[in-house]
Specification:
Layout: E1 2-7, E2 28-29, E3 35-40, H1 56-63
Antiparallel strand pairs: 1-3, 2-3
């Protein structure tokens, strides 16, 4: 599986038939909702051309960062 981070403003242009995420409600967003993670298998969909691909290990490291994870306890 491959992962790409996109800006939330790009979500309307996502072809959900070409990625493993089924809709925008099921995307993983950063804390301020300005970015989201898409995942796919195989070749990079053309609408993601030029975006940086991340492996599973790489995306886990990114998602454990302060922009994606809060230390606050509710």
């Amino acid at each position: 599986m491959k992962y790409i981070i996109i800006d939330s403003s790009e979500i309307p242009s996502v072809d959900f038939n070409l990625v493993l995420n089924t809709n925008s409600d099921l995307l993983y967003y950063n804390l301020d909702k300005t970015q989201a993670v898409l995942k796919y298998e195989g070749d990079q969909p053309s609408f993601l051309s030029g975006k940086t691909e991340h492996s599973h290990e790489e995306i886990l490291t990114i998602l454990s960062g302060p922009e994606w994870t809060s230390d606050e306890i509710f």
